[in-house]
Amino acid sequence: MSDEKKRTLKNKGPNESQRNQYHPALCNAMEIGLFSDRELLEFLQSIKMNTLPREIDFLVIRKKKEGTLKNEIARFFRKCNIWEFKGYGGKLDIQVFHKTMSYAYEYLALNKEIGSITDMTLSFLREGKPRELMKWLGQEGFVKKDFPGWINRFEKDGYPGVQIVNIAHDDAPAFLKVVSHRVKTEDIRNFANYVAGLPEEERDKARLVVELSYRINGDKKGGDDMAGFFETYVDPLNKVIEEKDAEIKQKDNQIIKVIEEKEEEIKQKDSQISKVIEEKNAEIKKKDSEMKKVIKERDAEIKEKNEIMEKMKAEIIRLGGNAAVF
User: Fold this and answer.
1) Hey, is 313 helix, strand or coil?
2) CB-CB contact of 144 with 154 (8 Å)
3) What pLDDT, in 10s, does the model give residues 122-159?
4) From CA 23, how far away is CA 263, in angstroms rounded?
5) Of 185-189, 239-243, 263-267, 271-275, which gets the smallest average pLDDT?
6) Contact at 8 Å (CB) between 186 and 151?
7) Which of 46, 123, 24, 37 is nearest to 80 (CA)?
8) Rounded to 5 degrees, what angle do the CA atoms 314, 320, 321 make?
9) Average pLDDT, whole number, for the chain?
10) How far is CA 23 from CA 43, 125, 137, 212, in A?
11) How far, in Å, are 149, 159, 174, 224, 264 from residue 219 at the CA level?
12) pLDDT at 163 (0 to 100)
């Protein structure tokens, strides 16, 4: 990787202006990670609230239809699921919880088909446990559920479900750990291997994710040289993507060639069929003409015989005979 690209991607720390850079990459990470449940889920990234030109950066994942969700995170989902990301250094506290609750109520008011606030979940992605917030949730009557250590889930009657996902936990999946500032080369390798097996459009989404990972990890030195891992694992990922794209393009060209050959074959057969039809039509036309000629000759012959008969009748009558015999 060139030094210029490294300088472009590197992020010395989060700030408000970088919020829009985090959001699409984190949304892509979620779509990639929940790929196995894609048929049941709909992902909405930038949400327009009311009629004013106001967009809020949170991810909404809605269930398109009922079915069994496979991903550990998705199993907690209800009809509508709002996600809030707190990037490197971001604070997750009671105020953030209330703000996200307000988003949920506002989104519910604009999408009445959801039903009730209890048909929703609030999910927070963060590095580490927000212990003060979790303590406050318990004091407010939210009951903590028993789930894997990297997921903390809470429920309370009349409220949306709440889950807090620790993206830096050792047991968290690679698609989440890769966007934490504690990422290891092994996480990048696992993510790259996972992404390499996905369809083309999903692999393209991975570019933003790994670039975000480098922005928040690229200045690390020591045991894991993050600049080095980018060259070792991310560049090969891009190479895999390019090779897959070339393979798909080659297959597309082969399919196009087969289609063109089939179309030419059909065209030739159509031409042959048209020729046979023309020959048959000419043959039928000739036979029709010959038949008409025969019929015309027979009609003339019958007419001539009828005329002879009439003359014979007239002659018999003139001679005083009986013409009834005719």
Assistant:
1) helix
2) yes
3) 999 888 888 999 999 999 999 998 776 889 999 999 99
4) 47
5) 239-243
6) no
7) 123
8) 75
9) 79
10) 13, 12, 26, 10
11) 29, 42, 20, 10, 59
12) 93
153 DSSP β-pair partners: 145, 163
For residue 312, give Cα distances in angstroms to 317, 322, 324: 9, 11, 12
Is pLDDT at 215 greater than 50 in this prediction?
yes
**97: nearest Cα among 47, 42, 152:** 152
DSSP lists the bridge partners of residue 234 as: none
Mean pLDDT over 285-313 rounds to: 87
User: Tokens in use for 37?
Assistant: 């449940």
**Strand locations in the chain, DSSP E?**
41-48, 55-63, 80-85, 120-126, 143-145, 151-155, 161-166
Sign for the pseudo-dihedral over CA of 273, 274, 275, 279: positive
Backbone region of residue 249 per phi and psi (left: phi > 0; alpha: psi in -120 to 50; beta: other values)? alpha
- Of 139, 222, 130, nearest to 185 (Cα)? 222
Is residue 88 within 8 A of residue 14, CB to CB? The reply is yes
Q: Looking at the DSSP assignment, which residues form a beta bridge with residue 41?
A: 63
Query: Hey, what are 138's tokens?
Result: 């318990």
Side-chain half-sphere CA neighbours of 61 within 13 A: 26
Give percent above pLDDT 70 in the chain.
79
Q: Per this entry, what is the length of the chain? A: 326
Lowest pLDDT segment from 75-89, 114-128, 231-245: 231-245
Amino acid (1-letter code) at residue 123: S
Q: What residue type is assigned to position 157 of the chain?
A: D
pLDDT of residue 16: 42
| Token duo for residue 227 | 């600049």
The pLDDT, as a whole number, for residue 322 is 59
Tokens linked to 178: 């890769």
User: What is the structure's pLDDT at 14?
Assistant: 43
Please say whether the beta carbons of 60 and 44 come within 8 A: yes
